[in-house]
Amino acid sequence: MIKKLQRRFILLTMSCIGFIFFIILLILNISMTASSQKRGFDLLSKYIRNQSIATLLAGESHPGGPRAGDSLTPGEVPPNFKPDKPPNDWFNNMRIFSVLYSSSGQAVEISTKGNPNLSESSLLTLADTILKNPKAKGRISGYLYLYVPSKDGTSIYFLDYGPEREMSMQLWRICLWVGLAGMLIILVPVIFLSRWITKPVQQAFDRQKQFIADASHELKTPLTIITTNAEVLESALPNNKWLNYILEQSGRMKTLINSLLDLARLDAGNEKNAFQNFDLSKAVRNTALSFESLAYEYEKKYSFEIADGLSLYGNEENIKQLVTILLDNAFKYSDAKGCITISLAPFSDKKQLLVHNTGKGIDGKDQKHIFERFYRLDSSRSRQSGGYGLGLSIAESIVKNHKGKINVKSDGKSYTEFCILLP
Questions:
Q1: How distant, in Å, are the alpha carbons of 22, 306, 399 from that of 321?
Q2: pTM for this model (two decimals)
């Protein structure tokens, strides 16, 4: 239980840290992408402005030149004009392409700057796509573009966004690996922190187990004396109802104490010292055979199917106790003249033990709790049958000590089936 609590703490803590890291990484990536796109559009704007001024100074007119309403004439320099610095270097210049359209919509100039990876036809296809749904700026097929309309026609300028995109991806990968390395480093103190946080729980749990074991041992002696004295008195005073009450309740108390001692031993793991290879098929069959008389007495249908030759490394007495607990429950809680079956068979690389009985079944809300200690579905019914809600807890501890799994299936109406997988 403590190990499970530690694992949950580590998982929850690391999940929160991972979620925060992912959010930070996502925000960083979005902001980096937005910033690089803004720089790209600024680069395009400066390029277009410089091209327009250069054309104006040359006394020419083209679709990207001065707009309608400008008072400038060819060859005239705007007042207070300070030309922008050209884009960073020739590299930026070489990755800016353009398509110029006339006022009639015909492409009059296509500039790919001699880029071998970009043909005029593919650039024209991109420009035609933009013309169908024109926007002032945007992104298409790995290119940033600016759409510049004028009275003489339309110009579309493209910027190869590959270097910026690659830089963003590289930054993303670096941040991802740094973050994963950081999480692995953080994992170490989180593990130690989980042990420190669960230490009081572990101490309380250990004290509880020790108390149960000590109290059970201490109660055995006075209970044995009480039972022995009552039996002696019964021989002198036969059919005395008071003595019968004492013996009946002493028997119930003895059953409870033995169950508590079994739990204490299983929790302590002492049973693992007696592990050895044994014939699982024989152990289950012999235990199942002992219930035939009970089936005959209560007129219930009882059958078993045990595969031969199955062995297990474990505690044979514990496995017999497990089968006894499950069959005892099956007989107690099956309906009148009901049907009980037990089977043992290989299942993949494991052994599967099934105990099935007809009857009322177990509701879904109760199935999650039936392995808890002192949990009883029907208190009055359990009291009549002598149960204390410890049997299935002992069964679960036995299965866990053998590195197996146990679960229950029931429709809550007509049947209950316990399934055990052993290695």
A1: 51, 17, 11
A2: 0.55
